[in-house]
Design a protein that fits this description.
The chain is of the alpha/beta class. The protein is built from 23 helices and 25 strands. The protein is elongated and about 110 Å long. The chain starts with 10 loop residues before the first helix and ends in a 15-residue tail after the last helix. The structure holds one RNA strand of 77 nucleotides.
Length: 741
RNA sequence: GGGCGAUUAGCUCAGUUGGUUAGAGCGUCUCGUUUACACCGAGAAGGCCGGGGGUUCGAAUCCCUCAUCGCCCACCA
């Protein structure tokens, strides 16, 4: 018995040692993998692009789940003889990271608005680089068998350039336009957001009924009346029939304005008074009403500034009321204007129990202020159609399949995508503006002069891309996609590129919560730019919750650090706890007890292996010739071996259909309750036997099943299985990691 | 307002196209110091498979309906 087998099993030292060995072996890199001669699969490839974790903190349990799932797929395919690539990376995560960094600054009593652009950018760069190092170490501790030689960052030079190329190409083809539209503006973070970055919450507010001359309108936002440009009613509403098309004089305290009454079918006759004030600059629905009635009514009048404060200077002369309101925040202004209107007897009634939804910033939960801004938009309908089709045709499969419906619904109702962000942390938009004539020039390099007026007063768009615009291109960018013209020249003679070998990738494994943010956009952008789907399968895992099914959050104090668990119980145990009983698409109730249970299992594997090896090391099983002559399998032995073969088949089947939670449980159950509890027990007598044949037959059976079991277990519990394999008397390959399944 | 999911043992969940007495882990209880393992072994208790109706020789599984919970989407001021 060799000294390596201390007990109980100690994962801490073993796991670090084993990972180093793997890493030094080079077998994480598919280029170094030899395809076994016996494999019928030849040089088939298998590729998973890791969802790049945000480089703004350390890994949480969700990342550990992602790592476990993907590593299982990768290790399984590698053992099945595929040229297997798992490509790691990290995401600069624009807005997310900037918010994290801002919070850090706030704690130090600083504000990002006081730091010059370039300096802030450099600070966040250093911050993310430091985080990347930590994250990579953590991935290694979890056993991730990814190819570090190919790791990518979303701000790598080539990624930035190719992201910008896509933008330029889309602009040229009319898929991207600059539009002056209402965007979701976060007053705190001072940036616009896409509709996916908003959340909705029900609020109880007051609904004010305000007299607009002969008409009474109902509104929750009386402070926007300064920006009114019309009153809308439903064309079928008899009450207002003779007012449609006429102008009415409205007293709005700060002055009097004339508003045209228009008919629009969006107005609900039943709601309120059936009449709506139209404020195109500060309400999405009103903006759209204006677009339908451009000829009849005035356009947007902005009376709220980017800080969420009232600004009347462009539209009203200074007077007493003006002075009271100017510069007030929205909610304060609301009080003041209501008071003033009440004084004038213009408030008909107030419903204080009005329930409605408000849009909030998904990060800070402040109410979003719709604001009129010039931004870059991606026209989505053209991109969405092929993305729908390819899933309908089954070229991309969802696991679980029900997410297809959610995907279709979103794509069929998709709205144009605002990709401009008013932050510093991100990929610069390759666009330039002529300060003299306003011409827009889309180009990576600064143009010498304006294409239109020939003057040289040119400045770059200060905005950066929505982070999902770059990560949406991740699969083909990380694999080194080159546009066809370039790649032709380059590869006439040379070997296949990664892109040619691995794209489309095989599986995209990620959380269902970013189905729209990321998965849908990768499909659209992959089809658009590379002309091919980015992946064949989408495996969506759920959220890791605490044992009471509560969402883990810092404020609740129920966050569990995966590395703490790795240190205490080992990565193998943590991986099992995350995988078993966890079906795709469903959230997981996670508890430390579960990890402890699988730590016990790891020890079980250790002890059983120890027993088998203790009883075989002097058996001289190393020489096949002696083995063959001394072994006589009984009917029962054959039954046991057959039983294992059946297990292997069934586990293989589950692995191939992405049912890792079942595969893992089957092998777990077999190893503990069949191999350890039954097979070892029933062979103890024979191991003590005087009869050499009996003894060696028992040794053979135990060793055979142990080795096979280690293989089946390896994708799930890579460390302990490799460590034991290294101590086996006759191992066929250098590592279990590249052993034949 | 649309849509999705869930409801199975005390807890967390499986149950693949309908097919014997419905499974696992954890927990509970009883027994056991058999030299691989107490991070263990042997055994046990525990379920009108949310309610109601239907299809079927047969339903946890298919259909309808109701209830409760969770989630996503949506420009009703």
């Amino acid at each position: 018995m060799n000294d390596n087998f201390n007990q109980p099993y100690n994962p801490f030292e073993t796991e670090k040692k084993i990972y180093k060995k793997w890493e030094n072996s080079g077998y994480f890199n598919p280029d170094n993998l030899l395809i076994p001669k016996s494999s019928k699969l030849k040089a088939k490839s298998f590729c998973v692009i890791m969802p790049p974790p945000n480089a703004n903190g350390s890994l949480h349990l969700g990342h550990a789940l992602m790592t476990a799932l993907e590593d299982i797929m990768i290790r399984y395919k590698r053992m099945r003889g595929f040229k297997t690539l798992w490509l790691p990376g990290a995401d600069h995560a624009g807005f997310e990271t900037q918010v994290v960094y801002e919070k850090k600054l706030e704690k130090e009593g600083k504000s990002r608005f006081q730091i010059p652009r370039e300096k802030l950018w450099q600070e966040i760069w250093d911050f993310t680089q430091a985080n990347k190092v930590v994250m990579e170490e953590q991935l290694k501790r979890l056993g991730a068998s990814c190819d570090w030689s190919r790791k990518k960052f979303t701000l790598d030079k080539d990624i930035i350039e190719k992201t910008q190329d896509t933008f330029i190409q889309m602009y040229k083809e009319g898929l991207i336009y600059r539009g002056n539209r209402l965007v979701n503006w976060c007053v705190k973070h001072q940036t616009g957001l896409s509709e996916l970055e908003t959340k909705h919450e029900e609020r109880t507010d007051s609904l004010y009924y305000i007299k607009y001359g002969p008409i009474t309108v109902a509104t929750v936002r009386p402070e926007t009346i300064f920006g009114d440009t019309a009153v809308a009613v439903n064309p079928k509403d008899k009450r207002y029939k003779n007012l449609i098309g006429k102008e009415i004089e409205v007293d709005i305290a700060v002055g009097k304005i004339n508003l045209k009454v228009i008919a629009d079918k969006i107005v609900d006759i039943e709601f309120g008074t059936g009449a709506v004030k139209v404020t195109p600059a500060h309400d999405q629905a009103d903006f759209e009403i204006w677009q339908r009635h451009k000829d009849e009514i005035d356009g947007p009048k902005e009376v709220i500034d980017k800080f969420g404060k009232i600004d009347l200077k462009d539209y009203f002369p200074k007077n007493e009321i003006y002075e009271k309101l100017q510069g007030l925040k929205v909610l304060e202004a609301r009080k003041v204007i209501v008071e003033e209107l009440q004084k004038r007897g213009l408030i008909e009634k107030i419903d204080n129990n009005y329930k409605h939804d408000v849009s909030l910033c998904y990060k800070c939960s402040n109410i979003l202020e719709p604001r009129l801004m010039s931004q870059w938009f991606v026209k989505m309908d053209t991109l969405a159609k092929p993305a729908i089709k390819t899933v309908e045709k089954g070229e991309i499969k969802f696991i679980p399949a029900r997410f297809k419906k959610v995907y279709f619904h979103w794509l069929k109702n998709i709205r144009d995508w605002n990709i401009s962000r008013q932050i510093v942390w991100g990929i610069p938009i390759p666009a330039w503006f002529c300060k003299d004539c306003g011409e827009i020039i889309v180009s990576k390099e600064k143009p010498d002069k304006c294409e239109k007026c020939n003057r040289t007063n040119i400045e770059q768009d200060k905005d950066v891309f929505d982070t999902w615009f770059s990560s949406g291109q991740w699969p083909f960018l990380t694999l080194g996609y080159e546009s066809p013209s370039k790649s032709k020249i380059k590869n006439q003679k040379s070997k296949l590129t990664d892109y040619e070998k691995f794209y489309p990738t095989d599986v995209m494994e990620t959380g269902w919560d970013i189905l729209f943010f990321w998965v849908a956009r990768m499909i659209m952008l992959g089809l658009y730019r590379a002309g091919k789907i980015p992946f064949k399968h989408v495996y969506l895992h759920g959220l890791v919750r605490d044992k009471d099914k509560q969402k883990m959050s810092k404020s609740k104090g129920n966050v569990i650090d995966p590395l703490g668990l790795v240190n205490e119980y080992g990565a193998d145990a943590l991986r099992m706890a995350l995988i078993i009983g966890n079906t795709p698409g469903n959230d997981l109730a996670f508890s430390e007890e579960k990890v402890r249970g699988y730590r016990n299992f790891a020890n079980k594997i250790w002890q059983a292996s120890r027993f088998v090896l203790m009883n075989t090391e002097h058996a001289d099983l190393r020489k096949p010739s002696s083995r063959l002559t001394q072994i006589r399998l009984t009917a029962h032995d054959k039954k046991r071996l057959k039983e294992f073969e059946n297990l292997k088949k069934s586990v293989t089947k589950e692995m191939d259909s992405f049912k890792f939670y079942i595969a893992g449980e089957k092998i777990y159950h077999y190893f503990w309750h069949t191999f350890a509890d039954k097979i070892i027990e029933e062979n103890k007598e024979r191991l003590k036997s005087e009869n050499l044949t009996d003894r060696q037959t028992a040794q053979f059976v135990l060793l055979e099943i142990l080795t096979g079991s280690l293989k089946l277990l390896h994708p799930f519990m890579p460390f302990i299985t490799e460590e034991i394999y290294q101590n086996l008397p006759d191992k066929k390959s250098e590592f279990l990691m590249i052993g034949e399944w």
